[in-house]
Design goal:
By secondary structure, the protein is of the alpha/beta class. It has helices at 2-24, 59-67, 85-99, 111-121, 123-126, 162-169, 214-229, and strands at residues 45-48, 72-73, 104-109, 129-135, 177-181, 198-201. The protein has seven helices and six strands. The relative contact order is 0.16. It comes from Micropruina glycogenica.
Length: 232
């Protein structure tokens, strides 16, 4: 128990440190949109960050996936990703349409997975998406979304809130989702299992640190590859 608590504190420090770095990071969100050097894997990926995470937060993961050959797209219009789920899903849907992207895979962290599932459920935007790999996504909400946060952006994670209940009730796209679960996650004590999806437990713990783990990067790539093989 004490060891897990300490690991959680270290993970929070890790996450906040990278969050601060992402706030001041430069670069272009379109730098990785061309296929990478490994042409065997060229399915376009759209990366969706978690709450209060700018697109730069996922850049290390993006560079690894691009190295495997995938064109990688960010959605900078999400900003710091603090908007309600339905508004964020519309932003992503508009991005897919404006870019003319089809047969894409979504790769999401935390709240990004909830946004991604909403996009997949949309008749028009969902037709552009083959599947999603979600890391540390609270598909069933989080017990840490206390009632005091109900009117804040964190209220979206309430297990008894309408957004989570509505998403949980809609299972049509779950079979096209791979949910990656850390060994422990202090932000989502209940875990990230999604009924009807392929749930894979990782060998690393924490809510934020897995994003920087090369083994997790490989697991994400492998999950994308498995979803590719299941395309009609």
């Amino acid at each position: 128990m004490i060891r897990q608590a300490l690991a959680g504190l270290v993970d929070w420090a890790y996450g906040v440190g990278w969050w601060a770095h992402a706030l001041t990071a430069g670069g272009s969100p379109d730098a990785l949109t061309e296929p990478g050097p490994d042409t065997a894997h060229h399915t376009p990926l759209v990366l969706l960050p978690g709450i209060w995470e700018r697109w730069q937060y996922l850049e290390p993961l993006a560079r690894t996936l691009h190295g495997y050959g995938h064109p990688v797209h960010f959605v900078p219009a999400l900003g710091s990703n603090g908007a309600p789920l339905d508004a964020s899903a519309r932003v992503v849907a508009d991005f897919l349409a404006e870019r003319g992207l089809t047969e894409v895979m979504l790769v999401a962290h935390s709240k990004g997975g909830l946004i991604g599932k909403l996009v997949m459920l949309d008749p028009d935007a969902g037709a552009r998406v083959c599947g999603m790999v979600a890391l540390s996504t609270p598909f069933g909400g989080s017990s840490l979304a206390w009632p005091v946060f109900r009117r804040s952006p964190l209220g979206v994670f309430s297990p008894r809130g309408r957004p989570i209940l509505d998403l949980s009730a809609q299972r049509d796209v779950n079979a096209r989702i791979v949910s990656l679960l850390p060994t422990h996650d202090q932000v989502i004590p209940e875990g990230s299992k999604l009924a009807g999806a392929r749930n894979v437990t990782l060998e690393v713990g924490g809510h934020f640190r897995p994003l920087r783990d090369v083994g997790v990067h490989r697991a994400i790539h492998d999950a994308v590859h498995e979803l590719e093989k299941e395309r009609p």
